[in-house]
Amino acid sequence: MMTECAFIIGDVHGCLKQLEQLLTYWNPDSEKLFFIGDLIDRGENSRGVVQLAMKLRKEYGAVVIGGNHEEMFLEWLDAPINHATYYYPRGGKATISSFLGEERFHSLSHTDLSKALQHFFPEEITFLESLPDYVEHEGYLFVHAGIDPRRKDWRDTEKMFFRSIREPFYTKENKSGKMIIFGHTPTRRIHPNKKDDIWISPCKTKIDIDGGAVFGGMLHGLHLKENGEYQLHSITSNLEVRDHTFLL
Predict the structure, then answer these.
(1) In this structure, how many other beta carbons lie within 10 angstroms of the beta carbon of residue 143?
(2) Which of 51, 8, 65 is nearest to 33 (CA)?
(3) Looking at residue 13, which CATH number applies to its domain?
(4) Number of folded domains that form the chain
(5) CA distance 223 to 195
(6) pTM of the predicted model, to two decimals?
(7) 19 domain residue, yes or no
(8) Which top-rank group of organisms is this from (predicted)?
(9) Facing residues of 219 across strands?
(10) What pLDDT digit, counting tens, does each position of 87-96 carry?
(11) Within a domain: 1
């Protein structure tokens, strides 16, 4: 498959150090940069990740796709009392603390935390609100979680499925006509024998690049080459680098 060179980064989840290391393998002069979603939650520096992604979009035209954790954050921001119980234990506490500090998180009410974030970080919030559900890139589809295989036209997939679907997508036939690169489901859930390596579907039309970085796994960066070759750079939790080149 001939395509414009691209570099696609898996679920970061606040793992800024791994992201910074991975970006040293990206060539901004020849590769367009994509993030597959879930920049935030669980990891220690969601604020740093968001601000770096904003800079990369502004300066290099990087494309950032929205994930379910960006969606959860925005839902909490809009109605903090209603969503706090669900959001906080799913990484929300870490994200809010990275923006406002641990002391504020523990001393302010849900509503005041939301108001403080909107007051001090309006640009970051606007950025997260602007993220698309998917991006088409020549013969590829980049999406956080997947598409609804029941739809005649995959573009009619509901927003919640683009950002949250799991087994009903990756276990079913891909009729989209696209090579789909996605995240959301840590690959250890699909092929536990290979732990955090990327997952390639048996039909070779779906690639999962969520290496579970925030769970002690790997942050994957997948290069798409003009000759149809794939090159993978993976950063482990202790910042070791693993490389792999392959064809489909």
Answers:
(1) 31
(2) 8
(3) 3.60.21.10
(4) 1
(5) 21
(6) 0.96
(7) yes
(8) Bacteria
(9) 235
(10) 999 999 999 9
(11) no
